[in-house]
Amino acid sequence: MKSKACYGKLGAWGLMLVWQLASAHSEPVVLPVNIPASSVPERNIHHVDTLNIHDPAILADPVSKKYYVYDSFHYGHPQENLDAPNKRAGVEAYWSDDLISWHGPKLIYDIEPDSWAQSEHAPWAPEVAYYQDKYYLFLTFHHYHNILEVQDGRPPMVTRGSQILVGDSPLGPFKRFSNQSHTPANEMALDGTLWIEDGQPWMIYCQEWIQTGAGLFKAIRLTSDLSGTIGQPITLFSAADADWTARTTRFDGKDIEAVVSDGPWPYMSKTGQLMLLWSSWNKDKSKAYTTSIAFSDNGKLSGNWTQRNEPLISGDRGHGNIFTTFDGQLMMALHRYFKQPHTRLQIFKMEDMGNDLQMSKQVLGHP
């Protein structure tokens, strides 16, 4: 089962490695062997094939007309060679004019020394949204020593939450509104993202399977400046609502319920169909990490949500976002290869079908 502790840039480098997916019947997958961008920050330009970014969310910035993508910065890992004077984990950014050649990385945020979260643990799933002339950085923070609850036969429930920071540039600096998560303190929450519905900002996020068994997709209203939340969250659907998701994992020598909810990304189609891109582990282990779509029946977060008959894409690909290029092409960015340091950004052409999204060929990134 998925453990995001593996998101650090770990493992042997510069060798031809073959990773066998977790199935006796799967074909071996040849992992990337080009030098990942995070290990050579001194290079002025990095080809898109080398971007070892987990949980990518590409921002097509309407102001600078540049593309930005963000990654967790794991201070102290041998392949994270970016200078970090404060010696704390944080977020690094890359930027590009054409999605092919990328500048960076640049450290745009490090966890404050007085943060409620542990500054030695990199925040997950960094993404930036442009809203009302400001840039908002969405992050998931952790405090592994703060235990919310311990249940027999299950991993401990630790403090984990999604928080929003604000800045005047896609490269920051980003400042917190307060020293607390935006998601409820009693929830193990992750992967927050912005959605505007009828002028009202919301944060869509996941509640962790460790706490709920079957991971949930939820949403909570935000104040107009995104500094805080309003009311209680609503539940959109469960990752167990899709037939293809894996239902168990091994913990302490036993099978336990574990259905991962990951990487929500909302999209409104040309006909007003509200969709939510999301990821989980596939019960067919040869397909590994998988991405699909859920559909609201009334075009609102409050609708009844149904699941796509078949996942959108599998083969160890997931946690993506939908964006439009400056020449009007709809795209999806995601990562392939869950195993760092081999994780790589991939970009696909997409077509809005009105009631669904259709994938075209991969156009950029490592195969």
Mean pLDDT: 92
Q: Give Rg in angstroms.
A: 19 Å
The major pleated sheet works out as: 5 strands, antiparallel
Strands of the widest sheet, in order across it, are 3-7-6-5-4
> Helix/strand-derived class?
mainly beta
Query: Percent helix among the residues?
Result: under 10%
Series of secondary-structure elements, N-terminal to C-terminal = EEEEEEEEEEEEEHEEEEEEEEEEEE
Tertiary shape: globular
Quaternary status: single chain
Poorly predicted ranges (pLDDT <50, ≥5 residues)?
Answer: 1-26
Number of helices: 1
The count of β-strands is 25
Strand content: over 45%
Distance between the termini: 24 Å
Structural write-up:
It is built from one helix and 25 strands. With 367 residues, the protein is mainly β. Helices cover 1% and strands 46% of the residues. The radius of gyration is 19 Å and the shape is globular. A five-stranded antiparallel sheet has the order 3-7-6-5-4, with no helix packed on it. A four-stranded antiparallel sheet has the order 8-9-10-11, with no helix packed on it. A hairpin with a 7-residue loop joins strand 19 (274-281) and strand 20. The protein has one helix at residues 209-212, and strands spanning 18-19, 29-30, 46-47, 59-60, 67-73, 90-96, 101-110, 124-131, 134-149, 157-167, 175-176, 189-197, 200-207, 216-222, 229-238, 248-251, 254-257, 262-268, 274-281, 289-296, 305-307, 317-324, 330-336, 344-352, 357-365.
